[in-house]
Amino acid sequence: MVINNKFDHLKELYLPYKFQLLLRGSRDGFTPKRFHELCDDKHDTITFIKVKGTDEILGGYNPIIWNNSNSWGRTKDSFIFSFKDNDVKNAIISNIRNTSYAVRYYYQFGPYFGYDIIISASRESVNYGDIWCRKRYYEKKIRDTEEQFSMEDYEVHQITRE
Known about the structure:
Largest sheet: 6 strands, antiparallel
Distance between the termini: 11 Å
Oligomer: single chain
Mean pLDDT: 92
Helix content: 10-25%
Strand content: 35-45%
Number of strands: 10
Low-confidence stretches: none
């Protein structure tokens, strides 16, 4: 390890991970097709969703790959989360309860965690039209309402160890 400043040696103690941006909606588009082009076959991803008109950030971690196979991804290591009002004290982290339904794969879906965070479109090449959050297969409800909402933006990052 090359030490460039007096704190570089501490970096690995606190965050020994690298976050590689795979997709940003405002840059790459808000379609399932673009999500699958950029994220399929990638494992250890984290999704961040900025809810339009609020201070809410929702998201989830998927340790297994994304694909468009019309099936479920099974894992015990997936979780979803929310942050409200720019305050970490309001954070909710919800682990997968039913591991058979951790993530959902389909060509018309973006990141889709159980039936708990749903991002889908009527066709693969059109912008997402159905976006909502509800409690089904994860332990906790992470949003106060189950009504549909709009995304201001979203990002998918792949996490690797440095």
